[in-house]
Every structure is written in C-alpha cells, then in structure tokens.
Amino acid sequence: MNLILLGPPGAGKGTQAKLLEERHSLRQISTGDLLRAEVKSGTEIGLQAKAVMDRGELVPDAIIISMLERQVEGATGTSTAGFILDGFPRTVPQAEALDAMLARKAMPLHHVIELQVDDAALVERISGRFTCAKCGQGYHDRFKRPKVADTCDVCGCHEFTRRSDDNAETVRARLEAYHRQTAPLLPYYAANGLLRVVDGMAEMDTVTAQIETVLAGSHGSGTEPGQA
Ligand code: ADP
Ligand code: ADP
Ligand code: ZN
C-alpha cells in the first residue's frame, strides 16, 4: 500500500507516518528529514537547501524530485509493504513527476490523506515541537511530553533538539507557501479520486483511528487490484 500524507506544516504528518510505519510495515519517506540529513552532512544539496529552509520557502522541484526518486528506488524490492510520503509532493510539478515515476515502475498510489488543521493551531504545534536527538521520536511541550521529564520514552536519551525553522517568522512563511503552492494539490488528488480528508484538529489517537478507517475501506480508484 502506497500513501501520501498531505497537510500544512505541523499538521501531524510525521507523527502519524511513524505510527503507520510500525502498524503496516510501510516505509516513511520524509523529504524534510532527508533535507535535514543533507544539511547536517554538508553535502551540495544541503548547502543549497539550508538558506531556503531557514526562510520557510520551498526547495526547488528539481532537487526534491531527484532526491525522492532515489528513495523510491531504494524502497522497491525490499520487504516493506509500501511507502508513506510525508512532505512530498508539495507542488503540482512534484505531483506530476511522482505520477510519471509511479507509472514507469507500475506502482499504484492508494490514498492521499489530507490532515486538516487551522492555521492558529499549527503555529502552536510548531512552536512547541521538539525531537529526541538520538532516535528522532517527536514530542510537544503541551500535547506530548515525555512520560518521565527530560527522558525519551523510546530510547531513554536525555538530549532533545528543536528545528531552527520552527520559529514564529518562518512559520508564517511556511504557511503561506503551503496555501499558495501546496493547497492546489487538493483539487488535483480530488480529481484523481484519491483524496481522503481527515480532521487533524482531533487528538493524536483520534486522528490515527480516522486514518485506520480510511485504510480499512476500499482502495482508491486508479489502483491495480490485488497489489499491496
Ligand atoms: P508535521 O510532520 O505535519 O510537520 P508533526 O507530526 O511534527 O507535524 O507534529 C507537529 C507537532 O504537533 C509535534 O510536536 C507533535 O507532537 C504535535 N502533534 C501532532 N499531532 C497532534 C495532535 N493531533 N494534537 C496535538 N498535537 C499534535
Ligand atoms: P513541515 O512539515 O513541518 O513543514 P518538513 O520537514 O516537511 O516540515 O519540511 C521542512 C522544510 O524542508 C520546508 O519548509 C521546505 O523548505 C523543505 N522541504 C521539505 N519537503 C519539501 C518538498 N517536497 N518540496 C520543497 N521543499 C521541501
Ligand atoms: Zn529517543
């Protein structure tokens, strides 16, 4: 089963993707995580992407598409039952490139799940977000604190990181980029019959349950019957 999680920054895509990964043996492909890894290792892509990300703008399509292509390539032939795209596509040209790539590989796309969240809630979610420095588990100052203070629930580590682009000014630019460049994907996938809308304002567990209901339902149109 191949899925796209679509939604504005802070909507809960990463949180839900990690849960789906475990439950359904899927592989999360997050272009944001890939870019941050490139920045960290100081690669050519990382050098180009860093300033753009810090401004809250979108990295050029050509860079993103070739990065994504390598990932999907790496996922085929492995034991995973499919992929969850988190943070990709973010523009209509990226969606068209994805369609072309999947068609070439005869891989179906089953659902495009939109997490709907108000802008005001997004600002609060993003400004309270932090992550375990070791295992990457996500937390929130208000909505998801570690069970034991300053200790990661998953790996017991005491070090946490906050993203440099999770600040008030950059968040505004990122929301604007979402509404201007990414929201046009909603009618694109509605026209394909793949769009499923989920209320992302609900609590995390409720959002997960809504997604599971979508996945338990019939697979989207345009898929190849019998394929996982
Ligand atoms: P995205 O990947 O869409 O940018 P995240 O999954 O990182 O979003 O979530 C943003 C922040 O909001 C994180 O700190 C996360 O713990 C928190 N969060 C995620 N889902 C919810 C929810 N349903 N209710 C409240 N907070 C949430
Ligand atoms: P969030 O979901 O919280 O906005 P991401 O981790 O998905 O954050 O993305 C962080 C930044 O990385 C974006 O603001 C953008 O600069 C860049 N980025 C990630 N994915 C893409 C993409 N598909 N196209 C263009 N830029 C991207
Ligand atoms: Zn951890």
UniProtKB/TrEMBL annotation:
GO terms for biological process: AMP salvage. Zn(2+) binds at C132, C135, C152, C155. Keywords: ATP-binding, Cytoplasm, Kinase, Metal-binding, Nucleotide biosynthesis, Nucleotide-binding, Transferase, Zinc. Its main location: cytoplasm. The keyword Chloroplast does not apply. PANTHER family: NUCLEOTIDE KINASE (PTHR23359). Consists of three domains, a large central CORE domain and two small peripheral domains, NMPbind and LID, which undergo movements during catalysis. The LID domain closes over the site of phosphoryl transfer upon ATP binding. Assembling and dissambling the active center during each catalytic cycle provides an effective means to prevent ATP hydrolysis. Some bacteria have evolved a zinc-coordinating structure that stabilizes the LID domain. This is Adenylate kinase. The gene is adk.
